[in-house]
Amino acid sequence: MSFFDTLKQYDWEQIKDSIYAKTEQDVLHALNQTQCGLEDFKALISPAAAPFLEQMAQKSMLATQQRFGKTIQLYVPLYLSNTCSNSCVYCGFSHQNKIERVTLSEDQILKEAMAIKQMGFEHLLLVTGEHQKEAGFTYLMGAIELLRPHFAQISVEVQPMSTEEYQQLRQAGLHAVYVYQETYHQENYKNYHPAGKKANFQYRLETPDRLGKAGIHKIGLGCLIGLEDWRSDIWHTALHLSYLEKTYWQSRYSISFPRLRPNAGGFQPNMAISDRELLQVICAFRILNQEVELSLSTRESPTFRDHVFKLGITAMSAGSKTEPGGYAVHTKALEQFEVSDQRSPQEIESMLHEKKYEAVWKDWDRYM
């Protein structure tokens, strides 16, 4: 059994219709619950909930402060490679795009790492394109072993791997893995991923199962907002989270909300989501689940991040570069997507301080 077996029990169109059929009474019922379920979540992400955004924001902010206090964890991505064997139509790293390809050497990785250390970070997210030969398990193991002495937490957002490989990476010091399904619409998934290993919908969908079996401390989920009906994709993300929390209860979980950004391929979103609707999604997730970590990246504008982080968010990236070598090596390789919030980490920390929040640069140490 895996989440693939669970997903087969649900029909995309029926789920979509049931979300859009929710009424004002359904929203009020959800807001009055002390513990919401997935049916309540449908109401909170439905069009009927739009007039209740202020109530949702207040409930979400209170729940977040009760569980996490006034703190925001800061992290930064380190792009190790933009080589990729997939051809995702929405991604600048697609092998179909004629761009300069770069995979950092050990010396270059250390230069990047030292530049990031000088910015104050202790939490590092390693990112690569998906290429088994250039940036596969062996390369990633070497990078983690190289960087582990310098950082308190190392997370990855890379190609899916086997349970055994995840176990070895965990033993080397890997803290968290973020893997996004992009869309839960199985039929249309192949249109966005026409070639490469990522074209296998089931293998990617079952990656969090393999992470849970490998005992990874934290597992990050999300869908790429803009591919399919975002309300339906968001609900399936919540279904996935619910399944994982019940099945692999030893792990912690994180949800991200990536919106499509301009990139080399020029792909345009099929279904846009407004700032108010994205805030509605963030609040709905917090009301549904008071334990899950919610992350907001530099894909979003400074104005949006400054106003929204208090209403449910627990982690933010800062000072991000989305090309290999972007911090110190300056290879001029193409970035994966355009960053919207280009403020420095210190500017983000100052913004948080002005709003009476604490920026958390390090919250975890390994003693054993």
Automatic annotation (TrEMBL):
Name recorded for this polypeptide: Tyrosine lyase ThiH
Domain Radical SAM core: 70-299
Coiled coil: none
Keywords for this protein: 4Fe-4S, Iron, Iron-sulfur, Lyase, Metal-binding, S-adenosyl-L-methionine
Keyword Glycosyltransferase: no
Cofactor: [4Fe-4S] cluster
One MF term in the entry's GO annotations: lyase activity
Entries under InterPro entries matching the protein: Aldolase_TIM (IPR013785), BATS_dom (IPR010722), rSAM (IPR007197), rSAM_sf (IPR058240), ThiH (IPR012726), ThiH/NoCL/HydG-like (IPR034428)
NCBIfam families: thiH
The organism of origin for this protein: Ancylomarina subtilis
Gene Ontology terms: biological process: thiamine biosynthetic process
